[in-house]
Write a structure and sequence with these properties.
With about 475 residues, the protein is α/β, with parallel strands linked by helices. It folds into two domains: about 375 residues, Alkaline Phosphatase, subunit A (3-Layer(aba) Sandwich), CATH 3.40.720; about 80 residues, Arylsulfatase, C-terminal domain (2-Layer Sandwich), CATH 3.30.1120. Helix content is about 30%, strand content about 15%.
């Protein structure tokens, strides 16, 4: 029996570069047939944003449908799960959906049993790793007690080799995590395909976060790539020096490792789309793809034509790939939509598609974007970002960004992560200059003042005025 309401699969990757899809034709070495199929059979939003240039506050805003500033989440140290409101999974559960979570979790400093863990915010079935306990990442290959002992106490945290979790119980994996997540996603859809109730699945890959050399040995051999060792407690080189050699521009074959991880993740996405076809439920299933923040150029991602990288409020730090497919005449195929869209919009949009009472998501900062996806539209009139030491507002074609150049975070990001944050104040006309190459702040002080006023009003409305 087919569900009368759509299934929903939300796929979130990690640090995927804006230019790194083969259908865009920017880089001939990129191979992403799965994502290309998703775009060809669905809608691509070309002005889509996340709510933060790093993972934990961005993921918190997505799961809540609100600006994470409302509960004080801005950067790694203060990000947290939004305990004050129902999560997207809890909303789906209230509609009678079966819910599943697979992959990376990172809302802040999570611990087992916290509300930030998927089984404690509405997910019935879970298989996940707590990146908040592992320096913000998951290892691609190692998740076991023996790996923790082998690496040492500090390195097991930095290299993220702690066991995975099923519910609140540890479960070991010595194998390629991307393939494991893909296999579990297909199994979830198979088991729920003939059930009377629809399902909501959140599939959160750790790809393509660094360190991308963590590939199965057969993949390294097939691609002619050398093995690179992770850092261990007893290594002669300290972690800081080792890390600098493990990111751009010092990691040999860095772009090749990154593209290998992207290709292998894409293969799992393609296999999942094939599974929906085989089960006969593709027309009954909404599939969404986006990444958690802009591509990480320190990990060899490319954000062309955008300027900037993860960690920054340049477009390259916050504008992301955003694909939505719902076949069977529900959404058009092969369409690109302009207009400002936010990851916060997923909350009201998919709940609207599921027939939820609009009152249940009326307090969202996100918008129901079904009409934009179907027929086009302008999207948001205004969007805001605030990390504490930098903020930005986009209103129509104009974007104003400010950076506290004296903040410790700025010197750290520029020296360690090789992320250039830019001048203290910059203004760009994104309609003519999406790459933010021409700063107009000195020419248009009137716009700088007006957009500053708009952002200050937003800060007052969210209750979190910046103290900087």
């Amino acid at each position: 029996m087919k569900p009368t309401r759509p299934n929903v699969i939300l796929i979130v990757s990690d640090d995927h570069g804006y230019a790194d899809r083969s259908s865009l034709g920017i880089h001939p070495e990129v191979r992403t047939p799965g994502l290309d199929r998703l775009a060809a059979e669905g809608v691509e939003c070309t002005e889509a944003y996340v709510t933060a240039p790093i993972c934990s506050p961005s993921r918190a805003g997505l799961i809540a449908g609100q600006y994470q500033a409302r509960w004080g989440a801005r950067w790694f140290g203060d990000s947290s799960f939004p305990a004050h409101r129902p999560s997207l999974a809890e909303q789906f559960g209230g509609l009678g959906y079966s819910t599943g979570y697979l992959g990376k979790v990172h809302y802040g400093q999570e611990d087992v049993g916290d509300r930030g863990c998927p089984p404690h915010h509405g997910f019935d079935e879970t298989y996940y790793g707590l990146a908040g306990k592992q320096q913000g990442r998951l290892n691609y290959l190692r998740h076991s007690d023996s790996a923790v002992a082998e690496y040492g106490s500090e390195a097991s945290w930095r290299m993220a080799v702690q066991p995975m979790l099923d519910g609140d119980d540890e479960i070991e994996l010595e194998g390629f995590l991307t393939d494991e997540l893909g296999a579990r996603a297909r199994d979830f859809t198979r088991r729920h395909s003939s059930a009377p109730e629809p399902f909501f699945l959140m599939l959160a890959f750790n790809a393509v976060h660094n360190f991308c050399w963590q590939l199965p040995p057969e993949e390294l051999r097939r691609r002619g790539l050398p093995n690179r060792d992770d850092w261990h407690d007893d290594d002669a080189v300290g972690y800081g020096g080792w890390y600098d050699g493990s990111i751009t521009p010092n990691l040999e074959h860095g772009r090749e490792y990154y593209l290998a991880q992207l290709e292998l993740m894409d293969a799992q996405i393609g296999a999942l789309l094939g599974e929906l076809d085989d089960l006969g439920i593709a027309d009954d299933t909404i599939v969404v793809y986006l990444t958690d923040n802009g591509g990480s150029t320190c990990n060899y991602a490319d954000n062309t034509p955008l300027n900037g990288t993860k960690y920054t409020l340049w477009e390259g730090g916050i504008r992301v790939p955003f694909l939505v497919r719902w076949p069977g005449g529900h959404l058009p195929a092969g369409i690109r939509r302009a207009g400002m869209v936010s990851s916060m919009d997923l909350y009201p949009t998919v709940l609207s598609a599921a027939g939820a009472d609009p009152a249940s998501y009326a307090d969202c900062d996100g918008l129901d974007q079904l009409d934009l996806l179907r027929t086009g539209g302008s999207g948001h009139e205004e969007l805001h970002w605030d990390t504490g030491f930098q903020w930005a507002v986009r209103a129509g074609r104009w974007k104003l960004t400010t950076v506290d150049r004296d903040a410790g975070e700025v010197s750290y990001l520029e020296s360690i992560e090789h992320a250039t944050l830019g001048p203290a104040v910059r203004l760009h006309d994104l309609a003519d200059d999406p790459g933010e190459r021409h700063d107009l702040a000195s020419q248009r002080p009137d716009l700088v003042a007006r957009l500053t006023d708009r952002h200050q009003a937003w800060q007052r409305e969210t209750g979190k005025e910046s103290n900087r």
